[in-house]
Amino acid sequence: MRTPIIAGNWKMNKTPAEATQLIQELKPLVKDAKSTVVVCVPALCVHAAKQAARGSKIKVGVQNMHWAASGAYTGELSADMCKACGVDYVIVGHSERRQYFGETDETVNKRALAVVRAGMTPIICVGERKEQREAGYTDALVEYQTLIALTGMTADEVKKVVIAYEPVWAIGTGLTATDEQANETIGVIRAALARKYGKRVADKVRIQYGGSMKPSNVDGLMKQPEIDGGLIGGASLKAEDFARIVNYQE
Ligand code: 13P
Question: CB of 218 closer than 6 A to ligand 1?
Answer without folding.
Answer: no
